[in-house]
């Protein structure tokens, strides 16, 4: 028996969309969660162009499958179609199943076909959490390089794990639903550049925020995610955590005019976020990979408040990663222990907002 992936059968995690019988997943942390009763079910994953390229380990989708909160499978989607059987048991049992895209949207996409279960098995969605969070960010939010303790190594989807990042850890600690909108290398006025005289004007989160994401990959017969306009009524966050500026800093450096420009565009992006999220409290966090732009972010938030009268917003300074005692992940990104430190700073802030303001 096939079970369609509708919201009557599963809970959606993050930004997802149905195309025919296929649920498209693009962004980090996107997926489904459901309660399953039976002796085992089959899931078919479909990959995009990246999945059929040989020796393409840097770009294969990394998939996590969790049963009752424990990761039981960690898969690389290295073929166009991958069938997997999970929750196998000699007796009928009930399990909470979570299927999640651990790697980010830009390099590879995945789809999930209808679940295949026995006739007497059942599937039902997990109830929504009391509070919903959205995280907007870059590689830090994606968990870039968190599984590779060698800073000289470059990007690989298989060393990226959103569940080991500060954003997911914060949501999990607060028992909140999560949605991530994060793309490595992207910023507010520039993507990452190793030449401050060159600005990556095409790598901007605000450009794609109103869509399902951004990807260089494509699934057969399904639009690319940046061509799909996101329906903001599908997921209404109570709190939005914005952590952007690390890539902009590679362009701004100590240039006051560029920093001022960043503040202006940051303010514009806050207005766009508020346009689509009227009820959300906004937290502007920064500092995990350096905090040079944190004062500028504080200035931008001050400008935003003055121009809009909106007081449902604040800044949070995150602790910078400790290279001397801990080291770095791939491309000098934070290791899991440093994400945990950032989450410990953010958790009480969001907890207070949930308790006192929502």
What key attributes describe this structure?
358 residues, alpha+beta, Jelly Rolls, Rossmann fold, 2 domains, six-stranded antiparallel sheet, five-stranded antiparallel sheet, 18 strands
Brief description of this entry?
The chain has 358 residues and is an alpha+beta fold. Helices cover 22% and strands 27% of the residues.
Note the beta-strand portion: 25-35%
Task: Quote the CATH topology of the largest domain.
Answer: Rossmann fold
**CATH architecture verdict of the largest domain:** 3-Layer(aba) Sandwich
Rg result? 20 Å
| CATH class division of the largest domain | Alpha Beta
The shape, in one word, is globular
The biggest beta sheet is recorded as: 6 strands, antiparallel
Instruction: Assign a percent range to the helix content.
Output: 10-25%
């Amino acid at each position: 028996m096939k079970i369609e992936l509708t919201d009557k059968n599963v809970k959606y995690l993050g930004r997802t969309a149905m195309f025919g019988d296929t649920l498209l997943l693009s962004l980090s942390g996107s997926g489904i969660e459901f309660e399953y009763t039976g002796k085992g079910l089959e899931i078919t994953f479909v990959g995009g162009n990246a999945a059929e390229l040989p020796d393409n380990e840097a770009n294969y989708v990394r998939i996590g499958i969790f049963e009752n909160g424990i990761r039981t499978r960690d898969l690389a989607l290295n073929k166009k179609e991958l069938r997997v059987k999970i929750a196998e048991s000699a007796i009928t049992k009930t399990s909470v199943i979570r299927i999640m895209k651990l790697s980010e949207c830009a390099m590879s996409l995945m789809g999930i076909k209808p679940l295949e279960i026995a006739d007497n098995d059942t599937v039902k969605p997990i109830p929504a959490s009391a509070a919903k969070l959205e995280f907007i960010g870059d590689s830090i939010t994606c968990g870039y390089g968190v599984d590779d303790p060698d800073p000289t190594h470059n990007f690989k989807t298989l060393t990226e794990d959103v569940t080991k990042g500060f954003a997911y850890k914060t949501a999990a600690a607060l028992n909140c639903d999560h949605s991530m909108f994060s793309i490595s290398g992207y910023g507010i006025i520039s993507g990452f550049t190793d030449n401050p005289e060159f600005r990556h004007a095409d790598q901007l989160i605000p450009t794609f925020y109103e869509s399902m994401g951004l990807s260089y990959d494509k699934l057969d017969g399904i639009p690319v995610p940046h061509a799909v306009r996101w329906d903001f009524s599908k997921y209404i966050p109570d709190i939005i955590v914005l952590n952007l500026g690390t890539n902009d800093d590679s362009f701004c450096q100590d240039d006051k005019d560029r920093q001022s420009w960043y503040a202006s565009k940051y303010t514009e992006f806050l207005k766009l976020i508020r346009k689509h999220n009227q009820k959300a409290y906004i937290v502007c966090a920064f500092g995990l990979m350096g905090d040079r732009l944190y004062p500028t972010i504080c200035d931008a938030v001050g400008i935003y408040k003055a121009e809009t009268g909106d007081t449902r917003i604040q800044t949070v300074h995150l602790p910078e990663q400790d290279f001397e005692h801990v080291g770095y992940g791939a491309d000098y990104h934070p290791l899991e222990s440093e994400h945990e430190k950032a989450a410990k700073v953010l958790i009480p802030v969001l907890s207070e907002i949930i308790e006192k303001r929502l």
